Amino acid sequence: MADLLRVHDVTIDYPTETGAFTAVEGVTFSVTEGEKFVLLGPSGCGKSTLLKSVAGFILPARGAMELAGLPIRRPGPDRIVVFQEFDQLLPWRTVLGNVVYPLRVARKMAGAAARAEAERFIGMVGLDRFAESYPHQLSGGMKQRVAIARALALDPRMLLMDEPFASLDALTRRKMQEELLAIWQATRKTILFVTHSIEEAVLLGDRILILSPGPGRVREIFDNPAAGQRD
């Protein structure tokens, strides 16, 4: 498979009152089309910063990032982020409305077509019965499923997931991991997934990049033969 994402010698700095703080230093890796690639490391190692830079929210101080051969300089619909926070949804719109809205705005779909597309992805995440519910009526795990459905409906080249299950209880988190694997089997969407959980990384990642404590540097990248194995 061809590389979809290429990150070459990337260093990311933050300005502070005492000078530049280096969050990530000299990181190089690539992600192939259809791969589940995990960034694993302790809190503060810069993995979320690296993902936000791939999303186009933060420009590297040095190095280069490319998606499908084009430089990443800003956010775009080819990369959609699912964050850890549950409050990613528009509270005044229903589940269906939350998925339909970006289809109308970003993909310029007509009303009936947008609704049909939204219903398809809401069904994929198992929330058919809750299509007319509002976010305040949903559990944390259900809100994350809506966020994933909305991201998939936009048909990005890559799905960027920033510890999306970290705030869930253990049983719900495991269920969401299994649902994500099922969704990936159905869509083969390229996923860049950030976590500090070794177990989650081993379950989800086709390949795993381990970052050292901050500033984050590549400690190792390895293939994971246990990916998708629930035992």
Structure description:
The protein has 231 residues and is an alpha/beta fold. Helix content is 32%, strand content 29%. The chain has helices at 47-55, 95-105, 111-124, 140-153, 170-187, 198-204, and strands at residues 3-16, 19-32, 36-40, 62-67, 70-71, 79-82, 158-162, 190-195, 207-211, 218-223. A 6-stranded mixed β-sheet has the order 6-7-8-3-9-10, sandwiched between helices. The protein has a 4-stranded antiparallel β-sheet with strand order 2-1-4-5, with helices on one face. A hairpin with a 2-residue loop joins strand 1 (3-16) and strand 2. The longest helix has 18 residues, at 170-187. The radius of gyration is 18 Å and the shape is globular. The mean pLDDT is 91.
Question: Which helices and strands, and how do they pair?
Answer:
Blueprint (H helix, E strand, L loop, with lengths): L2 E14 L2 E14 L3 E5 L6 H9 L6 E6 L2 E2 L7 E4 L12 H11 L5 H14 L15 H14 L4 E5 L7 H18 L2 E6 L2 H7 L2 E5 L6 E6 L8
Parallel strand pairs: 3-8, 3-9, 6-7, 7-8
Antiparallel strand pairs: 1-2, 1-4, 4-5, 9-10
